[in-house]
Amino acid sequence: METGKQKSSVEEELRRGPWTVEEDLILTNYISKHGEGRWNSLAKCAGLKRTGKSCRLRWLNYLRPDVRRGNITAEEQFLILELHSRWGNRWSKIAQHLPGRTDNEIKNYWRTRVQKHANQQWMPRLLERIRTAVDSSRAISNAHTTLTSSNDNSKFSLPHVPGCCNDYSDERDRAWVVEEEGWPEFPTPSDEGSMLAGLWELSAMGSNMYVE
DNA sequence: AACGAGGTCAACCGCGCGTCG
DNA sequence: GCGACGCGCGGTTGACCTCGT
């Protein structure tokens, strides 16, 4: 029978909180020698006073050699929006399509930079249009080319994307949008390198459509 | 310079699923 | 078939950072 005293002594042995450089080194060296797998036993064998879960998380989100660090690019932003509109909060699935990015990173990105705009009037329509647009592989290819060839995110322009913001082939559709939803409120792109630069560009295309 | 508000992100938690004995 | 265990996933937390006043 496990006593409270025994339990607390076990808990005391386990470290929590931020990882130290030494712990990172131990984990990295151990995995480079023995490989991943069986995280609980790995933690014990490596001599780390951490749970298997903690080791796994640290390795996958930070220590793995192929982890990409740094800002999410415009291309990645576009992809995240599209994949999220398709799959919802399936972060690990979305991460599989963004090499080097972790589900945790994408989840954090979405929650901190995208979700706060989710209640904007233009957002649901924008996401729906993106989702529709990228059903065409040509659209993805064109967008990819344009986004990656641009050095200035504030000035990049997406090509004509069928079904996207600039595609109101049906005049009744455009009239319906204005009549039913009114003029959309667009955000101010405070940071040209941010996700909103891409969204801004897309939404601006929609805005031009409305006023032409 | 000091302080508070808001943003960011690493890490933890709890649940559900798959595997194994 | 069933329970125990380990793992992976999505949600949440909290420490730290940045920016505005």
Automatic annotation (TrEMBL):
HTH myb-type domain location: 11-67, 68-118
InterPro entries the record matches: EOBI/EOBII-like_plant (IPR044676), Homeodomain-like_sf (IPR009057), Myb_dom (IPR017930), SANT/Myb (IPR001005)
A GO molecular-function descriptor: DNA-binding transcription factor activity
Subcellular location: Nucleus
The Myb-like domain, residue ranges: 11-63, 64-114
Gene Ontology cellular-component annotations: nucleus
UniProtKB keywords: DNA-binding, Nucleus, Repeat, Transcription, Transcription regulation
SUPFAM superfamilies in UniProt: Homeodomain-like (SSF46689)
PANTHER family linked: MYB TRANSCRIPTION FACTOR-RELATED (PTHR45675:SF1), MYB TRANSCRIPTION FACTOR-RELATED-RELATED (PTHR45675)
UniProt protein name: Uncharacterized protein
Lineage of the organism: Eukaryota, Viridiplantae, Streptophyta, Embryophyta, Tracheophyta
